[in-house]
Amino acid sequence: MRVLWATFAVVVLDQLTKTWVVAMMEVGDTIPVLGQWFRLSYFQTPGIAIGWTLGSKLLLTIVSVLATAMVAIYLVWLRAASRTYRLALALILGGAIGNVLDRLFAGVVYGYAPFGYGNVIDFLHLDVYHGFVELPWRAYPSFVALFPVANFADLAIIVGLVLVFAAHLSLRRQERAQAQRRHSLGTAGGDAPDLAGAPEHPEASA
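^ thats the sequence. predicted structure below, dont judge the formating
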């Protein structure tokens, strides 16, 4: 499947950039690229995103591996799907593999945790907004940062999800167009005279 080249490219780009960040930066370092709006900020994420966890890092790693395997199986199973849809799944698979590799091996490679207990390496910091926001269900303001620090694996997953949505919209439009075409053909056929009960031509009965 040619779309797997997209998966391979995402994994290679993700792991190479993470290796560079770990080699060149310390955790918490930030390098302005476009002022304060876009920066390289090195953080390690133990949970899923923005602090979400499943209670156990090992459980989170196991769930991540299983989810990645399901995406891979689904991609192989959908050989007859549209190229856009398969490309979307290939990008999601590449992003999932990139982050799973961090959870499995980062702790061992960098010497801070055993196998399966690693943190995801994040460094792409798009600082659209940050500040405290009053929420009606909280007694005190909550700090909100848009968007959280990410990596190329995360970006591949986001792009893949957008493509999945676009592929579904395209499929819906095609289905509606085909339904309208069938309806038009059925209406045109219903206007034609019914010759089933008409008498035979004299020559035909001779």
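Residues 32 and 39 are 4 Å apart (CA to CA).
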